[in-house]
Structure formats: structure tokens, C-alpha cells
Amino acid sequence: MTDRNDAIIIGAGHNGLVCAALLAKGGKKVLVLEANERVGGAAVTREFAKGYSVSACAHLLYQLQPQVQKELGLSTKPSGDSMQTIALSPDGAHLRYSEGEVTGAGDADARSYRKFHRQMVRFADLLNTYLNTTPPRLGTAGFRDLATLARLAFDLRRLGRDEMRTFLRLIGINIHDEVTERFESPLLRGALSLDAVLGTHLGPRSPNTIMTYLYRLAAGHGRLTVPRGGMGALAEELAHAARSAGVTIRTGMPVRRIVVENGRAVGVETVGGECFDSLTVVSNADPKRTIMELVGTRHVETVFTRRIDNIRMRGNAAKLHLALDGLPSIDGLGKNDFGHRLVIAPDECYVERAFNPAKYGEYSAEPVVEMTFPSVRDPALAPTGKHVVSCVVQYAPYALKTGWNDDAKQAFMKTCIDTIGRFAPELESRITASELLTPADIEREFHITGGHWHHGELALDQFMFVRPVCSAAQYRMPLDGLYLCGAGAHPGGGISGAAGRNAARFILREQSA
Amino acid sequence: MSAREVHQGRLQTPFYSRLAELDTLNTWHNWKGYTVPDALYCADTEYFAIRNSTGVFDLTPMTKYRITGPDALVYVDRLVTRDMSKIKPGRVAYAVWCDDRGQVIDDGTIFHLREGEYRLCSQERHCAWLMDAAIGLDVNIVDETADVAALAVQGPTSFAILSRMGINGLSELKPFGLMHVEFDGFELTISRTGFTGDLGYELWTAPENAESLWDYLFAAGEVTGIRAIGGDALEQARIEAGYIMAYIDFLPANATVRTGRTRSPFELGLDWLVDFKKPNFNGRRALADEKRSGSTWRLVKLDIEGNKPAKHAYIFADQKGKKNIGFVTSAVWSPVCKQNIALGTVRMPHGAPGSQLWVEVFYQREMHWSRVMARAEVVDKPFWFPQRRGLTPPELV
Question: Which tens digits make up the pLDDT trace of B62-75?
């Protein structure tokens, strides 16, 4: 047996790495075990066709928490300036917006959007404070919990009476109502709807899609970047920071189970049969996988099991990767415009209609698309003169009625390419290789149950005090020695590092007490 | 769980024809969908059958689940607070099960019928809870309430009657033991269990054998005063034995709305059923906390002066009634103990065994109500615990 580790982290996803690095900086001896050959989890760059690389899952960086960057001394270079969003219009009159400024809509919309963005950012800032802290327990007399709650109440009140009321009104409602009330331009309504529902099993008319929109804005006010070298570069940098702090990272080591003895986690056993001891086991895997598969329900209690079992995590976003022998042309766009984020969501109803079939286990006949051409900013991702496309396409339900067999994948890929082809007619002829990752593929490749970005739907009943489930929202699971540090824990998914950082701080605080 | 046709109206148990034949009062009540008698001729006579000869009670409506599968032991062990690995095949365990907050959902008996095959028997239905508890485990749970006809045969002559009926090997059967026998061509399971606190057995068989079993039993019991009994007599007997009832002495945790209305095993005097040596069971973490920080309530057995049953009475720490500390949940005059007895709930730290409390008893004489403050002593042991109950082999009387 080797020296006992102070902590073992299951999964070198970005949150796992952040957690590992901060625990190590806190003086812990940390071992990270990653199932895949490379670190990063869903933050990874990989080659999908010879010479063509792409961020295989997450592809835009907009949620990385500044605290994480600061505490780990990250210096990931974005490739180029922050991106605009270009909402594609069939008639070439596209709309562009970024961080409160919109062009291509009328003056009234420009003013409304500026006002809307300012208000949303204010609310998102409030939210962000609490994304970066352990959520307080309700109904306890713990000083820390009460203090956090009191601060939350104070921060809410400090918005002012009207703004507080607006916040409380908006937090539960849907984005559709809000954008139709505020804006004329269908393109702007559609694009903002898409922003709110990306990565969720929600449509613009679903409840709490303002909350998901705020969540999106929380860390960076909606400023979009891509790291040079793709998302994998960020993961490598995090891994480097972790290793510099003394963390041992071992890849290709899938964990088979969390070893439980006498009612507490005492280590892990890998698929290869190797055992590692530690009295602190931190899982970067999603809560369902962690409890149902790695721990086993026999080691935890029934209500907790049921709650974990009932976490909604039906992934609905697919990744489409295309290798192109050249940029296609899109009416109304110049070459440089391909370095921005292009979205296909012509109006808010289009997005809702795209969502409808997903409720019944079918994919969208007309999907919404978030499309980037990362090689425009970062030519190293493709051979000279060639390009890669990275798209998030919705909705592609995890539990497709027919199952995600080859026929279904081919058919959905064609649907996606046709949808994009309406704006870029020559796209199809330029494709030299392609790859579609459905939520089922994402589950397989990144070990995320249901292939859900957030390791659990981002909804008010699975948020803050009740994330991942009621009575286990403070990273510590009801099994001594077991913690969560991934997106399934508070606050949720996206490349933010908040869950990993909060978990590390919680564990350090608890173990020093 | 198997799907069943939904019946309109009350069900009849497989013993209904025999009960109806003996019934002279025609007072029936609804027990979990079945029609069962309050009493057949006279509740008091029936009660005395339990204590002096043998009373036969139809307990078919008791909820019964069959639990099988590779994880059956893991499942029941996690479900209840006591260590089920100690309950070998052929043994029965009285057990209590809790939610994650350590609050009691129900109590009941778990029969280890054969290796890895269990029957959970309880007052309340627990389908949803049992299915939740099965998540992630390889077990099969079947509601067999209607598939098993059951009779409680309780009283000092019960052993003699069953022996006379021709059941071999009964003399070795210890309390909380069970055995399977072939009787008249059908399988009969006999357990030395009951809800009366007396010597007694419970018989379990397929519904089609019910009437035949009844007839054999009553033929064998005729000379020793066997009597069919109703729910009223049993209620009296179970209070004497100090047994608690769901919805009377406690509320199932998943049936309460208000906070503080549930009870932990400690608060029901069931500490002996909680085994912290087990690394995990439902409620363990919460119960360990409670053990450290103390309980809120205590279940007390009260020996009350006078002869007026203290039904629904408040319990006070002082005779003047200034300090209200709890309430009575079950009360009865015990003919066999010649005591006015009750079960009640009081706030900790009141009610330690041997302590003296006061019970406010209301009673009515010709319409007018009177009130008396009766002295009550907290007793530790069950009011009724005859030596014969534990004797193996039992006396052949």
C-alpha cells in the first residue's frame, strides 16, 4: 500500500481539477483518478478527423469564475477578442449583439436591450455572489448558514424595493414572456431565448428560464471567449496548476466503486482492480453515477436514494463537428464574422417548437443551432486553409424513442446540416468529415448520466439549497468521507469551476474545524 | 407489485363464512378494506378467552409483503433498525422502520420464512416506501396480503389445541420461531407470535385452505373453550401487553404534515431495536444525532389509580395540573391485572420509570361530566407478561 492520500478525486473534469488544486494548496495530499486518457472531462480538445481538432463538448468560455482564475493563477489566452453573437436571418439581415449592444434591430430594441442587459447583469451579479459560496442550510441554527441567509436577504433588499420585486418576479418565470414583452425583433427574441435554454431540457416557455439566463450571465456578464487551443488548453492549464500544487493525476483509471467500510467512504477501487485509500473521497462525477453506481444505494438511506434517483438529468443538446475544406459563404457575413458565434433561432416560437418533440422522445425537425468556426480564430485546429465547425444543436433528447442507433444519428445529422444549409447552401459540399455526439454519446464519452451539461437540470427545484438534492446541498454527502465537487453540486454546470472551488473550500473548512 | 382488480365495497376474508356463522352482534368495521367484526358475541367474553382459554383472531387484513431476491437480506437490514443478519431462517423479528430523519414509519414483524425469503407484516400499507427502499437493489417485493390467510390463535390453551389438532414439532417452537408443516395436504406456516402478550401462535396458509383450517382448529379446541374474537378484545389485550399501534400511539412519519408529530424509536421505547453496530440503515444518521442530543418525547406505560379509563387524558407533572407534559394515547381497565392502565406520550425528561405523574380523567355520570386528577405511576415492564409466554415447551393445559 502506498501512502494514504488525504483526498482522492474521482474525475479530472475541470471542477475536479480546480478542487484538487485548491485542496493541495490547502496542504492536502491529493490524488486525481481520471477514466479517460486525457484530463478535462467535458473541457477537452480532441481530433475528430485527421488534422481537425475541436473542443469536443463545451466549446465556449463564458462562465469561468474570476476567483478560480485568480486563485489558481490561470492565464489562458483567449483566441482573439470576445465574440459577438450573430443571429442569422434567412434574408441576410442578421442581428448582432454582445454584452448589451445590439445592431440590426430597431432603435427601440437597441434601447430596450441595453436596459434589459443592465438589469439582468445586476441580478446576475447578485446571483453570482451565491454561486461562489456553499449554499446555506435552511432550518438550522448554524451561524454560517444564518449569516449567509441574512446576507442574501440584505443583498436582495439592497436592490431597492422595485428591483427586488422585479427580481423575485422574474426568477421563476420564463424567458419567452419577458422577451416578447420587451423586444420587437424576432431575431433578438429568438437568440435570447436560445441563450436561456442552451444545455437544458427546457423551452423558452418553460418555468425558470430567466433564472437559467441569469446563470449564464453570472460569471462574465455574457462575455464569450474561446481559449487558444480549444477547451482542452484550459484543462491542461488547470492540470498544470494542480500538479504544481502537488496533486498527482492519473489518467486512464476509471473508478469502479467507492469503497465503503463501516458506513464511511475509505477509498476507491478502479476498474483495473487497484485500490486507493483515503478518508476523503471527492466525486467529480454526477450525483446519480456517484451514488447509484459508485457507492451503491445499500450504503445510503432511502429518502436520499429516492431523491438522487429522481434528479432530472435528461440531456438534450448534441454536439456536431464538421471538417470543411473551406469556409462556406453565408449571405450577409464577411470572412471575419465566422469568428463569432452564429445562432439559428429565428424567433422565440421557433425555439419552443424545436423543443416540443423533445418532450415526446423525438428530435427537433428544425433544431436550434449555436455554431462556431473555431479555426477562424485559432488556425492550428485545422490544416491550413481548412476549417472546423463546432455546433451545439438542440433538441436531441437523450432518451430518443427509437434509441440513438446509426440511422437515427444519420437522420439527425442530415437534419442539422439541412438546417444550417438554409443559411450556408454550399456547406454540405464542403464537408470532408463529420461527427455527431448525441447526449447518449456524451454520456458514454464523458461519463455524464443522461449526457446533461449541468449534471442535473438547472431548475429552481434543483438549485441552491436543494442541489443536487434537499439535505445534501453542501458538497458533503450523507456518507461520511464522501463529497461532490462537480456540476451536479451547487451551483451547476458550465465551465465555471465554482462547484470545484466551493467544494474544496468547504472540505478544507470542515477538516480544519 | 402485482396489479389487482379494484373491488367495490368491503372485502371478505377467507374466514368470513365461519366468522359470520358465529356472529351474533352484527357489528363490523373496516380494516384495510376488509370487513371484520368488532366483537362476535361479547367483547369481554372474547377478551377472557385470550387470557383463560384461547381466542382466535382473523388477521388476514394485516399487510403482508414477500421479499425475495439476491439482495433480500441487504434490503431488510437497511430497511429496519435492528440487525437482520442475526435473524436466521425460521425466526421472526419484531422490527421498526424509519425514514431518513429517524422517524418511525411503522412497526411490524419480519418472518425469515426460508433462506433469503422474508415476509414483512405490518398494520399499514407500505408499497411506496418499500419500492423506494428497493431502488438500486436486486429484490422482488410482492404484496401478498390477499394471498395469505392468517389466524392468530392466542391464549394459555393454544398450544394444547394445536397439538391436539395434530401439528407435530410445535413443542420445540420458541417464541419468535416459525415452522412449516404439511397439514391435511396443504402447507401451513406456524409462528409463535402474536399481539396479545400471551402464549400464542399465528397460522398462515393459502386462502383456499382457510375454512378447512378453521374447522380443524375449532373441532380441536371445543373442549378447551376456543372462541373466535373481534377487534375490541384484541385491542384490550394489546394494551395490556404494552404493544403500540400506528395512528393510535404514534403516527407513521410519512402520514404527518406538521413538524414534531412524528416519533423516533427512542421516543417509542424501542431503543432495544436500534442497532448502531450496523454501518447503515434508514435513519441511522439522524438517530445517532438524537442519541447524542436527546429525544423530545417518551412513551410511558401508566398504572393509574381508580378504575376510570383515562382515554384521551392530559398528563401533568403536578397534581394541580399546572404543568402539562403530555397525553394518553391508549387506555383501558385491565381485568387480568386489575389495573387501570394506559400508554401515553410525555415530554422528556418527564416519565422516567418509577416516577409519579398525574392524569386528568374525565368521566360522565348521567350526562354530567366530572373530572378527577388521578395519580399515575410510570411502569417499566409490560402490564401483562405471563411466564407461559416464554416457556418452551409450553404447558399442555
Answer: 999 999 999 999 99
